[in-house]
């Protein structure tokens, strides 16, 4: 009797890349829902635009590169890139912001380097930084948390670039707590005075604390289901908190508390969803700790002394550059080499 | 020196109370229950036996019989070649049909030389069987020689000749008898320990007598309580206190020699080294039982226990099988295949290899025949790009970076692959099992290893060829010289002494002249201006003049 032959092992595989991507997308839901509740319809509309652009751009590039389209699209990686970018964008930014950013992320940062598995930089963050450098103004269009405009106003803002009825954009938008913090601390306002402003909540920016808590919940679920490993998120948050603690202790009037940093901006989104992109991050267990620490420290530096509202994108991209070198120097000791064995 | 190095090793706790961990590993669903519930049954006598000459690691045995010969049970039909080799014996009586390449259980799927015996059902024993030995009153060399001539090899799966493994017995601190099954589904060692614990214990006592270790233990998995109990009962019945039974957590691949040593002692066998380097020898329980049969029953290795299981076979069971029995015979004895049978594996689901025919025989290292359907073990989905998620790193028991190894193996960067520990990979398959991109990682590592071996072989061949060529040139030169000398002597003899003197003087003069000329040539290489016509010389002179004029800068007039 004749039989088919395959290489070992023969046990059925456990999960696929598509399952991993789907789980990450699922884990984003609490955070995305929380953002929608606080900032209104702009959040899901951005998600839709970026998601559609990501799928379209990926399909186009796969066709041009002569790669299987459907099989690759269903791995979910393009959709995830679109979603991560959309959640980083200001909810009232014009529609082409999401389109340009996502298209750059997929076409240039991902597919031109060879597609999934070959991109040296985090595609979503590459797209975000291009937008941040090119269109800084559009990325500040955040509505006041809890005071989001209705659907019509949001649609008008996104698709015509101006609110209906001639009301001013300034009436709809508001500087984020992190922006405010950076600018006012720079002008010599004390932290204590800042904390009394309505923009600040219990321990961080008003509303943003909840967003970060929601992302934290999603991230913990990813850890628990072993989709991601603990090293990068823990190290990143630790790096950020360590820097913030040292400076806050030295000069509590001038430097924000570690708690503020951990629960403001995209801290939790970055730690659990962005910095953990396995393709562009470090791959050795020890290397991932250094990678996370690096992202955390750079993020804090840019937040504190830089000219941009959020530093995670730069932190991730800079550490992406260092990842191969870190990997090279953090190889684990192979069984039977060195310790425990005679030379 | 050895003592000095060992001082750095973790101390072996004589009570073995603590278990240590190796990195990674997998908790795999056990499917041993299917086979281990039933008593070991004899597989019966097949009409033909197929006995490969290479059933072990090392040199294949050398065939001693020719077609038409009548052979008896236990008769040596192929002899060992060198120390890392093992003889082959006829498992029953019959007539040698032929000696030819046949499909054998090997991952390559290539046929290999086999002795085919038509059995006659008489099972008549060879008349010249060696006597039974009282091992306590027999010297070690005789016992080792008995183990060697009985053709015993490691029955755990690797098939390393047992005599060779027992060669280094200096300062052995620990003898470990490995009763841990290599993989899920396999139950041959479990059933052997359950039902034939006394054979195992007697074998262990003989091995201990040979090795004289400081401590001796039998390791079983914590999900084999019956085996553990049977072993303990057999030890108690003998008042044997020098052998301990310990259980280890059921984590794949604890059955691997290096991993088991780590779990028991926290020591790591050095890369490319042997357990004896760190004062430990490991033998499989099946090997121990075979040693018992060889020494006490004077029976060479003729049969072994094989687990036949999987959802592709009617009745899962453990069988006592004559070496050389075709797998098709086992399957028939187990009630035949089920309808959906798709794959036939030799070994377990993680490291076993698929064979394309059931004509392959059971050999000394065959511990399991796994017949499976596409439902229980489907074809792997198409591979996707590696996303460097690192799941493979998490489970690798050798602490490797499988994702990096894959990268280098795939791109043919063999130096980097070796730098990242390619040859420390034990091919356990944990990485491929958890890979979300469904990459057949082990396949890439095997391919890279084979390619490197092949290249090294080619290089050695080329080196040998070059040395041969150089030796030939030297030889030809010597022959030529000898011939010339002979010629000269002849001439001398012919032309008388004085003429010979003159001739010799002339020859010396001529030789000196040649040497002088050669030296001159070497000192002043010929120039291309040596033999020129007057016309050319004139041209050169003119050119030189022009060059001189130009080189002189015009005088400054100021």
Low-confidence stretches of chain B: 554-558
* Order of adjacent strands in the largest pleated sheet of chain B: 1-14-13-17-15-16
Q: How much beta of chain A, percentage-wise? A: under 5%
Helix percentage of chain A: 55-70%
Instruction: Kindly estimate the percentage of residues of chain B that lie in beta strands according to DSSP.
Output: 15-25%
Rg of chain B, nearest Å:
35 Å
The largest chain-to-chain contact, stated as pair and per-chain residue counts, equals: A-B, 47 and 80 residues
- How many H/I helices of chain B? 17
Q: What structural class should be given to the helix and strand makeup of chain A?
A: mainly alpha
Unreliable stretches covering 5 or more consecutive residues of chain A: none
Shape of chain B: extended
Helix content of chain B: 25-40%
Content-based structural category of chain B: alpha/beta
- Cα radius of gyration of chain A in angstroms: 21 Å
Measure the end-to-end span of chain B. Answer: 88 Å
Q: What does this 3D model show about the protein?
A:
The complex is a heterodimer of chains A (343) and B (558). Chain A is mostly helical and 343 residues long. Chain A has two domains: 15-174, no CATH class; 175-330, no CATH class. Chain A has 16 helices and no strands. In chain A, helix 1 (17-39) packs parallel to helix 4 (77-88) and helix 6 (123-134) crosses helix 16. Chain A starts with 16 loop residues before the first helix and ends in a 14-residue tail after the last helix. Chain B has 558 residues and is of the alpha/beta class. Among the domains of chain B are: 1-30 and 130-298, NADH-ubiquinone oxidoreductase 51kDa subunit (Rossmann fold, 3-Layer(aba) Sandwich), CATH 3.40.50.11540; 384-492, Fumarate Reductase Iron-sulfur Protein, Chain B, domain 2, CATH 1.10.1060. In chain B, 38% of the residues lie in helices and 16% in strands. In chain B, strand 15 (341-346) and strand 16 (353-355) form a beta hairpin. The chains are: A mainly alpha (343), B alpha/beta (558). At the A-B interface, helix 1 of A face strand 15, strand 16, helix 14 and helix 15 of B.
